[in-house]
Model the fold of this input.
Amino acid sequence: MTGGARSRLLKLAPALGAVMLFAASCASDAPQDTLKPEGPAAQKIDNLIKPIFGIAGVVMVLVLGGALFIAWKFRARDDDDFNEMPKQIHGHFKAEIGWTIAPALLLAVIGAFTVNLIFDLAQKPEKDAVQVEVYGQQWWWEYRYDLNGDGDYTDIITANDLVIPAGREVALKIKSRDVIHSWWSPRLNGKKDAVPGRVHPLTIEADDPGEYIGQCTEFCGLSHAEMRIKVVAVTEDEFSAWTEHQQQPFEKPTDEAAINGWGSFAGQCTSCHELTGMIDPSSADDPSDATDEFVFPQQKNQVSNAAPNLAHFMTRSTFAGAMYDLRKDTPECTALGTTWASTDDGIEKCLNRTDLEAWLRDAPAMKHMAPGDVASLNSRGMPNFDLSEDQIDDLVAFLTTLK
Amino acid sequence: MTTNDGALALGSGGALTAPPMGVFARAGQTKGWRSWITSVDHKRVGIMYGAASLFFFVIGGLEAYLIRLQLAQPEGKLLSADLYNQVFTMHGTTMIFLVVMPIGAAFMNYLIPLQIGARDVAFPRMNALSFWVFLAGGIVLNSSWFLGGGADGGWFNYAPNNGVVFSPSHGIDFWNMGLLLTGISSLVGAVNLITTCLNLRAPGMTLMKMPVFTWMSLVTQFLLLFAIPVLTAAQVLLMFDRLFGARFFDVSAGGDPLLWEHLFWIFGHPEVYIMILPAFGLISEIIPTFARKPIFGYPFMVFSGIAIGFMGWGVWAHHMFASGIGPISVAAFSVATMFIAVPTGVKILNWLATMWGGKLRFTAPMMYSIGLITMFTIGGLSGVTHAIAPADTQQTDTYYIVAHFHYVLFGGALFGFVGGWYFWWPKVFGYKLSELHGKINFWVLFVGFNLTFGPMHILGLQGMPRRTYTYRDGYGFNFWNMVSTIGATLIGLSFLYFFWIIFHSYRAHKKAGVAVGPDPWDARSLEWSLQSPTPAHNFDYTPTIEVFDDFWHRKYGEDEDGRLVPVATGAEIAQPGNGEGVHLPSPSYWPIVLASGMPFLAYGLIFNLLLVIPGVLLIVGAMIGWILEPSTDPNADHGHDDEPSGPNDTSDVAVEPAANDEGDAVADEANAPEEVAAR
Done:
């Protein structure tokens, strides 16, 4: 073997490592980058891991460089006398004790900082933290807010977008309705699993308003790759406006298509979907006179026992487990934030009507799901209901009234 | 079995000479396929382990390449989500249980008896059983592809996603049954090899004179002995859940999904060391040979291996830092995990110290060994970065972890195994693999490996989750995924090249007709004191061991000035390969018959319990036959290498292909010194 080939082996690895870290920290278009913290918890983790990456890099250069040096220096040469033996060294007790203890000490120091941070991150959130229950289920996330601190997490029930005030802690209580999922928005904090039967706390906080995306990171079946997370951080004022708006009662639709859609919704969709405070369109001869609240069936057909609550559906920016944009992702529409659907003009410009209609037409074609027989207990995800184009138009008209 | 030849000859009283069970003729073939399926020779069992693992390696490799093709670009459409989930589950399961573990078993089966100066393993028929049950498990697992689809829950198969409700196909049942069988195989093997190491060492070979590979194998077998039952327990719970409606992991019935996670990782973390320690052992034999120095700090190498074995039990929950096990557990497991880097680091530095001051010959096995040292170092360091539990909450379940464990298991274990193939190939098959092609092959594999798995560090830190069938444009994942797929193509080509090298080297050997000699590398341990390929009876006479590396010390002595000089070549002092009077355990049908009953149990539990009946009949029948059959056929010749002289009078020795005749050995002696000197 030539010396040149050897050195290539040994040079390549440290260079590769350096390039990798560099490339990872410099990517411009990586919204899930773990090395770009934008909240206190993620920042603390970053502060700990960056120096450790540095130490690991130094150790790597030393070990691999040392291996390169040794390989080069002690290579057998062609003119060596085969009978000339190298010195037979069987070991060196002190050196070996040395390189047992030295890394142990280094790791002890790193360990001390690590343990310190583990307990720091596990601290209880502050008193003014926003209280949110997070439910993972195949393959979307539900968020339930307790706004008044009474322990009742039904003040707001929403899905896909987690709206939080920037600069305030948010205390998440992470749960699961079916299998294990993991909630992760890397720029705000590390991930935490949603395990059936358990409540796992996680505190997040965003430094500034903005959108912080993430996705489920514990393998949870078919559409694990499309079980997405979007945290929408807004100012305190916007947040109070949003919470107030979310608690507005259901408004009956007024135009004819929407009223038809309302009827279809009550007839078809409510075996899985809830809609907080919805009036039962069949409780009067003319739906616009109806006043009785709709009684949602207790027994749900889904394994997960629920589909997203569609109250104020139009204030969200995504649907189908945050897989599709509900509000188009143009700068103009994004700038409208959670209020994009408050005007007809906004809906006209920003509603992603194509995907929404396609979803109603054939949901399993839009996202890998296992809808199976709706009546059976093995149904997971939204089935294809064979809706007519008229029904779809009516349903979309109804959904756009859920502002 | 003992090391003492006298004790090998079981009493052969007249009462035992009738064929056992009256009807069946005893297996006696020494050639052809029947001699392989009835063989109880540890060397043949080792070769069969190796061949079967390579077969499964091709399957697992194709699965890996499907994954890479799917992920080459965003929104890949090659596989559906369902199929992708099956493919990555089966890729991981296959590579771990049907490739890396059995390749380790292949080396251990072949080498342990040779390195400790034994005739065979302690329980030769159990050894054959171990292989056949492993093969049955591999077949049951992979037959799922033809019977409704593979398992789709990930190799870790977390509950409750592994339940019937969430995975209604039979894929996970096949996974469960297949791995229950390979678990039986591992346990049988562990008991066998531990006994072999402890009881069959040649006179003078104290524990602290055992070669490092044998030591690492012993530690590995103890890990298997204690780890496999934990997995088996979890799998039995899963079996009852899936097939008989139990609800061990169902919260609504008082079960707990985290029970599965804990049980799985209490097995799963020692498993990591089960996979890497044999490779550590292999390169601990290769590096001293090509440095022409003894292993540096033998006691440290041994005790660091034992330390890794012990500490491996105290770190399982680092797979669960995000599972909500609470800050105290997280802190304890985080610190414990960091400290397991200490004995591993000792090994790396001791290998480098072994090279220090040596005269390094860069043969193909040596290059793979240095490849292991460097690549494992990278994997070890990334391992430390996710021992930092808070950092791990960012890294776990991303491609950063995929990069990490491929650096330790591919860059570590597999590089060591390939190096081992090049090193021991002449001992096993009597010819060398081409050195020139071996080195080119190394560079192709090395570059391909780093191109495939290096970029995964970046992808992981950029937040690309594992086990996702697709990713989106605009997340910064596109470029590095394409690079990774190109690298995977290179890996695939490098293994096609490797298979070609085997073929090419074999043909070159056949053409030249020159035997390789007992000691082609100027190596150190006892197996090199035997002819190549190893004679069926291993040792003509039991060697007596005086020092560590005894064989090497018989080749080199000190001259009057105290300088180390060669006093004999390996070929001169090698045992001539004359098995006159050696009495070996006889071949037997019962191991494969017993193993063949196992798939009936597996399929019976999955499809129809009636199938269990023939399974049980086969197993119990084979057990009875086994018990009634003396391990040594009293009708067989006690001699060696004779052709069978009659239908009932067959040789008890599984004769290797004729290449190991004494005639060749004489020719080797003439060739070997020049061959060594030429390097």
In short: Chain B is about 60% helix and 0% strand. Strands of chain B lie at 556-558, 564-566. The CA atoms of residues 368 and 419 of chain B lie 5 Å apart.
